[in-house]
């Protein structure tokens, strides 16, 4: 027995990997709650710190969390596009760099961005125009949304004749743990400016997460990808066209989510139940007295027939040893 217990004992590496899995799969806005429980279960600060130091940066960037700057001059989005060395993240709108404590999810410092960390004036013109249009859209569409536009590739391009890429990041979260619900909307749009073809290709990835946990545990994890294109024009014209495309696709996807929820009772939920009972005929709820199987089963079990047998509470409280058989039969007869 001692040998079997030793073999079943998890190694420190396995414990760290399991802890990381729970942290990375935390619902939107709930990683701190999960971390508290994981730390209590591990009961080892060294192992927890190792797991947290690896999981939190990945979680923060994948959920596009937004943190206020220490000097209250704005916010910084934690994304792979804004990431610099040493847990530093660029806010291109204010040209500042924030140092982030991933585990505590706070900004611990801020400094002006260096020239080499910023795009060239030519790229900045396109980035700034697009940022202004996206900001107007987000303020209209998302009450608690934040956004930013980054130069993903070609930040040193000085003028026409070369390709470059911008990234539009939109993050909106609504955390209400006191009401047992949290949710987030994250969308990333890669905008490729192709000089030779004089086109702008747009590829979007949308991720929606929600968690409702009052007397239960219901989660939504939806993902959607789309693409579009427009003409390579002047910076202002491109910004209007790109923001219009993003607005169209996000509005369309939101409408599809709403439509799917409206149809849940008549489609998805019903598909979870048996379309027909084992008799291959619909159960006559309107006239249960005519259902002969109930009387036959009662007769076989030596129980006096009572139409109230079809009441779940009644069946579950039968004292006969064969009560479980009735329960199984009753559940098999439930129709869609």
TrEMBL record:
<comment type="function">
    <text>F-actin-capping proteins bind in a Ca(2+)-independent manner to the fast growing ends of actin filaments (barbed end) thereby blocking the exchange of subunits at these ends. Unlike other capping proteins (such as gelsolin and severin), these proteins do not sever actin filaments.</text>
</comment>
<dbReference type="GO" id="GO:0008290">
    <property type="term" value="C:F-actin capping protein complex"/>
</dbReference>
<comment type="subunit">
    <text>Heterodimer of an alpha and a beta subunit.</text>
</comment>
<dbReference type="InterPro" id="IPR042489">
    <property type="entry name" value="CapZ_alpha_1"/>
</dbReference>
<dbReference type="InterPro" id="IPR042276">
    <property type="entry name" value="CapZ_alpha/beta_2"/>
</dbReference>
<protein>
    <recommendedName>
        <fullName>F-actin-capping protein subunit alpha</fullName>
    </recommendedName>
</protein>
<dbReference type="InterPro" id="IPR002189">
    <property type="entry name" value="CapZ_alpha"/>
</dbReference>
<dbReference type="GO" id="GO:0051016">
    <property type="term" value="P:barbed-end actin filament capping"/>
</dbReference>
<dbReference type="Pfam" id="PF01267">
    <property type="entry name" value="F-actin_cap_A"/>
</dbReference>
<keyword id="KW-0117">Actin capping</keyword>
<dbReference type="GO" id="GO:0030863">
    <property type="term" value="C:cortical cytoskeleton"/>
</dbReference>
<dbReference type="InterPro" id="IPR017865">
    <property type="entry name" value="F-actin_cap_asu_CS"/>
</dbReference>
<comment type="similarity">
    <text>Belongs to the F-actin-capping protein alpha subunit family.</text>
</comment>
<dbReference type="GO" id="GO:0030036">
    <property type="term" value="P:actin cytoskeleton organization"/>
</dbReference>
<keyword id="KW-0009">Actin-binding</keyword>
<dbReference type="InterPro" id="IPR037282">
    <property type="entry name" value="CapZ_alpha/beta"/>
</dbReference>
<dbReference type="GO" id="GO:0051015">
    <property type="term" value="F:actin filament binding"/>
</dbReference>
């Amino acid at each position: 027995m001692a040998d079997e217990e030793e073999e079943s004992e998890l190694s420190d590496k396995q414990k760290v990997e399991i802890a990381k899995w729970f942290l990375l799969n935390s619902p939107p806005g709930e990683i701190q709650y999960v971390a508290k429980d994981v730390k209590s279960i591990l009961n080892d600060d060294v192992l927890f710190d190792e797991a947290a130091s690896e999981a939190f940066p990945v979680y923060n960037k994948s959920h596009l969390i937004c943190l206020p700057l220490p000097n209250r001059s704005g916010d910084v989005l934690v994304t792979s596009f804004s990431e610099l060395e040493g847990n530093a993240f660029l806010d291109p709108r204010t040209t500042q760099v924030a140092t982030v404590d991933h585990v505590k999810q706070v900004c611990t410092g801020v400094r002006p961005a260096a020239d080499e960390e910023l795009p060239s004036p030519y790229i900045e013109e396109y980035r700034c125009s697009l940022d202004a249009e996206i900001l107007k859209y987000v303020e209209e569409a998302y009450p608690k949304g934040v956004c930013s536009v980054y130069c993903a590739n070609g930040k040193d391009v000085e003028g026409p004749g070369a390709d470059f890429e911008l990234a539009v990041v939109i993050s909106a979260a609504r955390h209400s743990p006191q009401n047992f619900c949290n949710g987030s909307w994250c969308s990333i749009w890669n905008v490729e400016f192709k000089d030779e073809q004089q086109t702008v290709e747009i590829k979007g990835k949308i991720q929606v997460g929600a968690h409702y946990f009052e007397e239960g545990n219901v989660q939504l994890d939806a993902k959607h990808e789309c693409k579009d294109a427009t003409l390579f024009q002047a910076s202002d014209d491109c910004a209007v066209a790109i923001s219009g495309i993003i607005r169209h696709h996000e509005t369309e996807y939101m409408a599809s989510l709403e439509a799917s929820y409206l149809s849940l009772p008549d489609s998805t939920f019903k598909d979870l139940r048996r379309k027909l009972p084992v008799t291959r005929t619909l159960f006559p709820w309107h006239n249960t007295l005519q259902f002969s199987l109930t009387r036959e089963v009662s007769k076989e079990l030596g129980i006096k027939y009572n139409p109230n047998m079809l009441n779940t509470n009644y069946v579950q409280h039968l004292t006969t040893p064969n009560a479980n058989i009735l329960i199984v039969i009753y559940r098999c007869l439930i129709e869609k």
